[in-house]
Amino acid sequence: MILADKIIENRKKNGWSQEELAEKLGVSRQSVSKWESTQAIPDMKKILHLSELFGVSTDYLLKDDIGEEVVPTTDTIDYGQENNLTVRVSMEQANSFLDYNEKAASPVSIGVMLCIISSVPLLILLGLSETERLPFSEYIGTMLGMIILLIMIACAVTIFIFTTMKGKAFKYLEEQNIDTDYGVNGMAKEGRSKYEGIHTRSMVIGVVLCIVSAIPLFITMITEYTSAKLGGALVLYGVAALLTLIGVGVKILVKTSMIQNGFNKLLEEGDYTRLNKRASRWDGIYWSIVVAVYLGWSFMSGRWNFTWIVWPIAGVTFVGYKEIIKTVIRAKNK
């Protein structure tokens, strides 16, 4: 095993990202990245520091013919699974996962978009009923909108279930510690590097769409000062346009993030460091509660033109929630 692979393996065993290891060594993340991709070799001072951090000998780090060396240290924290299982990932498994992940990104992002825009038909029908343009009663229009909403959510849930079942074989990448065969890390880093430009553009487009989504609503709100009757209907159309733009923007963000995170899962970086894997166990419960609050509030109040605010609030608070969970995990392992 060469030095680059030994650095990767021991960094992951300690649950550190490249940034965290770089901070401990007093170097840049780019330096650690170059060491791990064999583009550069650390000097002797850094080798000694690595030896101390990893709890291994310098001979183990420098000599390719010396295999895995286990020297336990008292200050090493393992942020992996409680049973400390490590799964080996071959090049074939890694390629199969990346292929599945890229194919799954589109349907999953569409499912998320369907959830966000599910109330758009209802809002449009309510707007038409206010201007008396429906060929049937307001009650029938509302019921029709609710039926369409439930069908769209059902379609989204179906997509999520089928995609999850197909990807069940790769679930361990999100939950367990992994070690990769020689060449897998280099392949994942190369793939991520090639996708970086697309990812950046997609993130910019998605974020911009979410930001400008409020413009149609502001424009339609102005009409309330000119025509009370028409203004009320136009505001509903404005909310529908807002949700549509947010839905499209989030779809783009979800798709590109899934593809990018596919590489991060193999590298155990970003949201998939060993610490983050443990912190993510409760994410499903968090978002289930958010969905329940959104649907419960919407059905009970009937204010579909307002309850959408649950989603941006949930997104913002999710960041704080994750940090709290990680702080608790760190404290527990001290």
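That was protein one. Protein two is written in the same sequence-then-structure order:
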Amino acid sequence: MKNYFAVIFASLALLSASCHKPVPEPEPEPEPVPAAFSKGADVSWLTQMEKEGCRFYDASGKETECMALLKNLGMNAIRLRVWVDPEGGWCGLDDVLVKARRAQALGMRLMVDFHYSDWWADPGKQNKPAAWKNLDLEGLKKAVADHTTDVLTALKGAGITPEWIQIGNETTGGMLWPDGQNYDSFVKYVQLHNSGYDAAKAVFPASKVMVHVDNGWKWSTLDWFFKAFSAQGARYDLIGLSLYPEKGNWKQYTDQTLDNIVRLHSQYGKESIICETGMEWTEAETCRTFLTDLIARSKADGSHCTGVLYWEPEGYHAWSKYSKAAFDNGGKPTVALDAFKD
């Protein structure tokens, strides 16, 4: 019995001592690692160009797959537009999946750019897809949500997670005209935008969902847009801007755009990304100077600009008739793209 009580008392002493041990401080959570600055390109024409016989070459003349070539030039991100029911299937869901898989295989980050149209959407046109032509506002909101969900669910099923999801392309004047035109009122446009935002977040909660407007250098337009956009309760995580200067005004436009990005952050708490830029391909030296300056200043502390993406650099003029590509007509990158090198 004596030994029994001794064991009990010893156990109680140990228990008491353990109860009075200081509780260790919890390990501090690691600081989140900031995402690397985004340097990339929209290459949505790529599969169509390849189908039509276009080939791409590095500076030494070696044939190279285009995305790999851009990665070798220092890019880390790919942007792909999505059309609803496009002629020939280019930039439709299946085509987007092909390009997205290639980008992922190269370790490239992905931006998905929903146009909500069967063809180009921009400040001059925001045409409804043919299949949505007779829908009322509620029908359009559902169509936006369903289309967004379908595309993103397909990407998710392929194991691909976009870092950025863009609700509409250069929607300075709204989307899905005339219902979502915003020149007189932002009410319907913001409802359509929020339908896309909510659908995107339901599939990829961690992706940054963005609104994209043109003329990033023009404060009067940005001020008008974001005051009205915010007043209607628009939901967004990031601002996308277009910046297309000319040889004679690139310094002014760069200054104004970067100043505007700081002002937008101050007023709305959102960072920006320059998701479209370019200059005449015949001004490659000037374009390199412009891009070098833009990237360096965007990467500086306090800029609130998280990246710079060139629009369709591979779409050289002889094929696309687009004058602001950054490849020559022989399929080689011009010196403009040297600005993206680390």
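Residues 39-340 form a domain with the TIM Barrel fold (CATH 3.20.20.80). Keep this in mind for the problem set.
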